[in-house]
Amino acid sequence: xxxNLLPNVEWxxxxxxxxxxxxxxxxxxxxxxxxxxxxGLLLFLTSKGNLWENRLANMIIAAIVNxxxxxxxxxxxxxxxxFTKLLVGTILGANAALPALIIGAAPFYARMVxxxxxxxxxxxxxxxxxxxxxxxxxxxxxLLPESLPALVSGITVTAIALVGYTAMAGVVGAGGxxxxxYLEGFQRSHNDVTFVATVLVLVIVFVxxxxxxFVTSKIDKR
Amino acid sequence: MCMITLENVTKIYEAASGSxxxxxxxxxxxxxxxxxxxxxxxxxxxxxxxxxxxxxxxxTSGKVIVAGRDMANIKGKELRKARQEIGMIFQHxxxxxxxxxxxxxxxxxxxxxxPKETRKKRVDELIQLVGLQGREHAYPSQxxxxxxxxxxxxxxxxxxxxxxxxxxxxxxxxxxxxxSILELLVxxxxxxxxxxxxITHEMHVIRKICDRVAVMENGKIVEQGEVLQVFRQPKQExxxxxxxxxxxxxxxxxxxxxxxxxxxxxxVIQLTFVGEAAEQPLIANVVRQFQVDANILQGKISQTHQGxxxxxxxHMDGEKEEVxxxxxxxxxxxxxxxxxxxxx
Lengths: 222, 344
Fold this sequence. Notes:
- Chain A contains ten helices and no strands.
- Chain A is an all-alpha fold.
- Chain A has one domain (2-219): MetI-like (MetI-like fold, Orthogonal Bundle).
- In chain B, helix 3 (101-111) crosses helix 4 (116-130).
């Protein structure tokens, strides 16, 4: 029955592509979360009136973030080819997509982190200082926990964007559902393969959104 | 012994529109164990002043000594250590919403590096002290304003500080809750011998709990002294206005005008009581001893931390000489008398 409706779909190929997409998204989300949080913290801490206020450092970080956020992802992949080759040794396969995915998504997430941190009541930071907290304590015990719901909903949005990015990366040889939809589906006019790949991408996006919303509502005690 | 000494402290903020002198050459001494109030309208510089005491702000010039430490010149670890000995509570409580009551109170103990077991015991003690039993595992969003401030107080006391700074601590609370928080502060002051410095714009707060008060205007301290003394003889115009906030019933002026119109005969007098005099049956004695009629028109007696203070408006009718003798008698009872001839 299913084989009749979807004559060209080879399920082991689909499964392998899904795993690749999940792998790329998963690694990229984790790395983006770490890198983006660090960048976002730096953006916040160096801004006016904050703990490490420093105009020059703030301008430099903001410039880097803005540049990488503005480059269209498909162009970023091409620009990063030499870098990827140096780092991963190849420009094909799931691992080769990771540098571009992370560099593309981290600045995007860093801005969300910065916004989340700015939402924290200044009074709470002042109270921690008045208690004799060090900057490290303020970061770990005030800034991150107090902005956690916003950080989680931000990484949810970023993760969904990353699923889209993996599909784009797939077109230029990174594997995954995007690659499958393009090579097997589009190039060979097997619309059923494209359809199945699309449905799977949608399922992944819905699941990410569901998990994100669930976690956010659990940790938000405001 | 002086817990806090300020010597010629000035704080200037450099802003794009020019420099602003928030604290202007302030000298102040606060004794160990006293409750010291600083009153002023918003913008008078009192928030800057209180933040100089725990080094959240650094003075542009002058000396700030708190518990033997020079707060203006210490940095890093030493400053953080000093701050652990100075608790602070805030108008908007500034609790961490991501932590429960218990975890919020434990936070300063974590900063001080207290081991977990000791921390738990200390937090339980503090919860008892501020009367929050049963709410340990609630989040701040589930508490009322008064309860939040109790958490703030417990948190400020966690590391057994020598000084407690109160930054408009009751300004966001309703009158009843304000009173209960003030009572808690007095209780803590008595029990722990803690020095309390509070800033406020409400004379009511000063009257209720302070031993001494300083009045701030445009960054300067324009008047300071014992609370009762300041109530009795306010020197500056601004102080008089603050004192009126609590002692004079509202619409006093209108009432007096009305009274003078209504009683063209006889005399309207204003009596000012301080301390013990407020507790004697003065009017009854006057009526008994002199041939006068006394009609109480309006009055208010306020309790300060050091004694009562009150104002009474009385209409007295009778023979001129008899009224004059009655007034003399009242004067002898340590009560200030002012004959009102117009509504000022």
